[in-house]
Amino acid sequence: RLSHEEGIPEAQWCFEISGPEDGDIRLRKDYLKLTGYRLATEAEMEYATRAGATTSRYYGETGSLLGVYGWYQKNSNEKPQPVGRLKPNELGLFDSLGNCYSWCMDAYADYPESSETADREGSLVIDGSKQRLLRGGSFSVHPTDLRSAGRDNYVPALRSGNLGFRLARTLPH
After folding, report:
1. 44: closest CA among 112, 103, 124?
2. Torsions phi, psi of 68, nearest 5?
């Protein structure tokens, strides 16, 4: 919808949605090269969350600073908080740890055995009954679960107050 509203040519849209009666959603082939709006991939979310850090959290290892950078069980009053009230990471991204899990474009799969994360196109059909990835943690997680590599998964039809999304685009060359 946003791709349409912003006048992005339809050939650059990342999704194909069939009629409202069947509601099938498919990703277009090579959607990672298209410039329309989509969800971030798991690799993009990890890169954006880490902001170049090699530690478990982008600001370092200490748990004492967690409440300065992320909303979690101890500081959130068990509810989502307005974005931008805590410190951003080095890329300027707010709430990349905690507050609400972010849906990723990827279907769920076991974490790769190598330390390398990469964008990968899986099935182009978005099946509402198959698990998809979530990154970033939420206001309801324990401090030990709030880390840059943290991931979870649910079916897309799940509705919850601790789930959200971030839009992404591939910039034209």
Report:
1. 103
2. -85, -25
